[in-house]
Fold this protein.
Amino acid sequence: MADMSWNLEQELEQGRAPAWPQGGHDVGVLKLLRLRDQMKQLLMEYSAAVRGGETTFLDQVVEEKHIQGVTEDLQTDKEEIEVSFWNKTLALQRIQLMAALRNKMKQDDKDSCLILETVNRIVLLSQAIIKYQQLAHEKKQKLIDIKRKRLSLKKDQRRKLQQIQTMKKKQKKEKGNKNLDEAKMLQNLEKERLMTTVIQNVFQNIIIGSGVNWAEDPSLKAIVLQLEKNVHLP
């Protein structure tokens, strides 16, 4: 394995990426350097002019804002060029690495066999990772569905409880009204019984006070016996 690593390093050394970008990257860097020098020169000239009283304070403020804006633009361009440079450098290094691996695998030796075995293992691991990611996504989706169903069941349960409570309150109110009606009916019945008792006593006193022998008259006897009944008894 150490020999394989040394061989790979040798092949990468032969096709190593340059430390600095070529072509368009050189133009971008040189442009930045020239602009930096121009900005330095411009700042020096304006500083000398301000010290010598050759410009007004307003002009100085305007120029400073302009210089600040240009400086910010240059800084942004510089960062974009650096990012682009490093991305292309990494891409080039990856290409060189793949080329070195392909060349090494063509040699059909022990190291190339190890490389091929490692690549196949990486492919299998990548496929397994993708599969488990899909399973994890499916499990996550099922969990979301279960949570939604639980939330829906909780809402239904809360609604049913509210309906039950409303029904109980209604039944309690109806029962209270029914008890009140029954109490009023019993009260009225008691009044009717009292009035009937008073009327019975009055009729009895009338019959007895008249001096009529009610025992010999069947009709009067039936009336007197009926009046003697207690209206409170069934």
Observations:
- The two ends are 115 Å apart (CA to CA).
- The CA atoms of residues 15 and 96 lie 6 Å apart.
- Residues 1-6, 11-25 have pLDDT under 50 and may be disordered.
